[in-house]
């Protein structure tokens, strides 16, 4: 059943930050600290040299945890579905390892799946600054950040047409989309339903083609 939704409140998470000596401190995501904030350029230099992935929000660095088998399976299903539809178009589909810089939100994220329709990228590129469609495969530990912090940041991208929050435990997609007047709406789609085109895919997409086969 399709229905409109409201997001929950934000929960505190923890983040990595550098103090004045260059050491890393563990802080609450929304807590205050005297530790030095990094610029986005310092963060990119740090993240490019690190073996682990991190996200950046207004000077703070968040260590990312590895995904579960179910998370990887659902992300892969979304990637394959979108790649099949967009093959032969100017748009490119990326999964997991491409960074997105949201300049207006002073943030850098690693979306689970991203559709980029901008100018051609160098083969060794690791960062884009716009996207047409963003997808996060959500879990209990990330749902509130996906629905609040990331939603707020992603909506600041002028190029973004839609943001999908895909459940990895049930056939459910929370779709945030922008209409022709620039207004955002949020609708939940469930098993058996189709996601509407938002001026990007050229067709509807069955939710069942990429949501969890086993829950």
Descriptive account of the structure:
The chain folds into 2 domains: 3-63, no CATH class; 69-209, tt1808, chain A, CATH 3.90.1570.10. It is 18% helix and 31% strand. The chain has 4 helices and 16 strands. The protein has helices at residues 40-49, 69-86, 143-147, 149-154; strands at residues 3-4, 14-18, 24-28, 54-57, 60-63, 92-95, 99-102, 107-109, 113-116, 127-128, 133-138, 162-167, 172-178, 184-190, 194-195, 205-206. A 7-stranded mixed β-sheet has the order 1-14-13-12-11-9-6. A 5-stranded mixed β-sheet has the order 5-4-8-7-10, with helices on one face. A two-stranded antiparallel ribbon has the order 2-3.
Characteristics:
215 residues; alpha+beta; tt1808, chain A; 2 domains; 7-stranded mixed beta sheet; 5-stranded mixed beta sheet; 16 strands; globular
Task: Assess the beta-strand content as a share of residues.
Answer: 25-35%
Name the strands of the widest sheet in spatial order: 1-14-13-12-11-9-6
Radius of gyration from the alpha-carbon trace, in angstroms: 17 Å
CATH level-two architecture of the largest domain: Alpha-Beta Complex
Count of DSSP-assigned helices: 4
- What is the fourth-level CATH superfamily of the largest domain? tt1808, chain A
Estimate the helix proportion, in percent: 10-25%
Averaging pLDDT over every residue, what do you get? 83
Number of strands: 16
Low-confidence stretches: 4-34
* Total number of domains: 2
How far apart are the first and last residues' alpha carbons, in Å?
19 Å
Class by alpha and beta content: alpha+beta
CATH class of the largest domain: Alpha Beta
Main β-sheet: number of strands, strand sense, barrel status?
A: 7 strands, mixed
Written as H for each helix and E for each strand, in order along the chain, the element string is: EEEHEEHEEEEEEHHEEEEE
- Form type: globular
CATH topology title of the largest domain: tt1808, chain A
